[in-house]
Amino acid sequence: MPSEADFLKSYDPSNFERPSVSVDLILLSIVEGKLAALLMRRDAHPALDLWALPGGFVGIAESLDDAAARVLREKARLDSTFVEQLYTFGAPDRDPRTRVISVAYFALLPAARFDPALSPYRVLARLEVSQGTAAAHVHEGQLSIAFDHSAIIATAVARLRGKLDYVPLAAALLAPRFTLRQLQDVHEAILETRLNKPAFRRRMLDKGWLAPTGEREAGTSYRPAELYRFVSSTDASNI
Amino acid sequence: MPSEADFLKSYDPSNFERPSVSVDLILLSIVEGKLAALLMRRDAHPALDLWALPGGFVGIAESLDDAAARVLREKARLDSTFVEQLYTFGAPDRDPRTRVISVAYFALLPAARFDPALSPYRVLARLEVSQGTAAAHVHEGQLSIAFDHSAIIATAVARLRGKLDYVPLAAALLAPRFTLRQLQDVHEAILETRLNKPAFRRRMLDKGWLAPTGEREAGTSYRPAELYRFVSSTDASNI
DNA sequence: AAAATAGTGTCTTTCAGACAGTATACA
DNA sequence: TGTATACTGTCTGAAAGACACTATTTT
C-alpha cells in the first residue's frame, strides 16, 4: 500500500460531480412586539422579485461559520451578534439552477440595528409561523417567499422558541441595558403567549444570567424600572 | 431582462470551485449499560487504520436524508430506525484529500440488531464523552478516531441527552416490548446518572408515550415486570 | 393627590425526590 | 416460606401560576 503522502498526491477530486454549497441567514428580530425576519427582494433569476433570505456560496477554503459571518456583513451589512448553525437543507430540486445544498444559520439582532439597511428591497417582515411554514407580511401585504425559505424560517423560529428558556438568547435581541419588562416582552413576542410577571422575574433572576446595573430607565412617565444587563455566561452551550 | 427559462439555459454551474459533500452517520446504541457507537476501521488513505464513522458522498441528485439512509443500509448494513440530521461540519482542513463538508446524521438502534455486522473492522465502541470530545474503547483498548469524528460523536451524544426527555427516543433503543426498568436503564446509560424509580415511572407514564400490553416478561427469576410498548405519537417533533 | 407602572408577598398547585411499604413471582 | 424484584402510597421540598398588595416616580 502506498503512503498517505503518495495517496494524497495522486488523489483526483474531480472524479465526482459536486453540489454547490451555500449559507442562508435567518436574521430574526422583534418589531412592534412581533417576530420579524430580514428578507431581500431578488433582483435576478431564478425567483426574480420574490423575497429570499440573504445568502451566498461557501468559498472553497472558507469555513461554514466564516461564510455565515461574511454574508451577515456583506449582504445584510450588519455585524455579528448571536449566530448559530441551524440545519442543512438539501432537497435536490430546491434551487432550479443546479444542486444547491444550503446550510442555514440563524442570527438575532435588535430591531434598532436594522434601520440603515432597510429599503424597498430589504425589509424586516413580520412572521406568522405555523405547521412548518412561515408567512411574511409588511404592513398589510403578504410577501411571496422564494425557494424553500418559508420552511427554513419556520425551522429557525422553532429552534428559537425551544432554546429561549435554556440559553440567554434574548440578550441578542435587546440593547445592552434593558428592563425586566422589556425582557418579558421579548419572550412573549417569541412564544406568542402571555407570561406571568412574578414567575418570569423569579425564573430569570434565578438563572444567574442577569445583573442589575443600579441605574434606572430615563424619560418615562411614572416609576422608572431598573436596568439590567446580561452577564457573559462561561458555560459552553451545547447543540 | 431575459426570462427565467432563458436564464436557466445560459446558467453555467461550473464557474465555481465546489466542495464535496458527504454524510457521516453516528449510530448509537446501549451495550452493557453504556453508550456505544458504530466505528469502522479505515482500510484506505487518508487516516488509514484509524476508526471512523460510516459515511459516504452525497449523490448529485440525492437528498441528504436519502444519502443518510443509503449509508445506513450499505455501510452499516442496517435498516432505519430513528435517524435525524445532527449538524454540518465544514472546517476547510477537516479532510486532507479535498474540501469535504459533512452533514452528520445520528441514528439509534438496539444493540441486538448489530450482531451480524460486527467484525474486527466494524465495532460497537463504548463512548466516554466529555467537553466536546469523545473517546472510544473496545474491551480495554482505546481506539484512535479519524478526522474530526470525535467532535461529531460528542455533538451527537449531547443532542441525544438533550432530547431524551422531550421525544420518545428510547423507543429506537429498545425491543418493541420492554419493561419500565429497561427503559429506565436506557435513560440512565445515556445520562450517566441514577434516576429515581417512582418519579421516572410517573413521568414516563404521564407523557402518554407508553401503553401497557397486559403481558409480562418471561424467563425471569422472581416477579416478572409488565411489558410496555411505545405508542406512535402523532405530533411532529420540531428541530 | 392621582395615575400608572415597578416590584413583592404569599397562597395554591404541580411535580420531582425520597423512602418505605405492599404485591407477586419463583425456588 | 424466603427472596428478590415489581410496583405504589405518601411525605417533603422546589418551583410555577395567580392575585393582591406595596413602592416609586411623574403629572
Verbal overview:
2 copies of one chain form a homodimer. With 239 residues, the first copy, chain A, is an alpha+beta fold. Helices cover 23% and strands 30% of the residues of chain A. Chain A has 5 helices and 11 strands; from the N terminus they run H-E-E-E-E-H-E-E-E-E-E-H-H-H-E-E. Chain A has helices at residues 4-10, 64-74, 149-163, 180-191, 197-207, and strands spanning 20-31, 34-41, 51-52, 55-57, 82-89, 100-108, 122-130, 133-138, 141-143, 210-216, 226-230. In chain A, strands 1, 2, 3, 4, 5, 6, 7, 8 and 9 form a 9-stranded mixed sheet that branches. In chain A, strand 7 and strand 8 (133-138) form a beta hairpin. The longest helix of chain A has 15 residues, at 149-163. Chain A is globular, with a radius of gyration of 21 Å. The two termini of chain A are 40 Å apart. Residues 235-239 of chain A have low confidence and may be disordered. Chains A and B meet through helix 1, strand 5 and helix 3 of A and helix 1, strand 5 and helix 3 of B. Chain B binds a DNA duplex (27 and 27 nucleotides) through helix 5.
Largest interface pair: A-B, 46 and 47 residues
How many whole angstroms does the radius of gyration of chain A measure? 21 Å
* Average pLDDT, all residues of chain A: 90
Number of strand segments of chain A: 11
Strand content of chain A is: 25-35%
Low-confidence residue ranges of chain A: 235-239
Element pattern of chain A in H and E: HEEEEHEEEEEHHHEE
Kindly, what is the distance between the CA atoms of the first and last residues of chain A, rounded to a whole number of angstroms? 40 Å
Major sheet summary line of chain A: 9 strands, mixed
- What share of the residues of chain A lie within helices? 10-25%
Please identify the structural class of chain A as seen in this structure.
alpha+beta
The multimeric state of the shown protein is homodimer
Number of helices of chain A: 5
Form type of chain A: globular
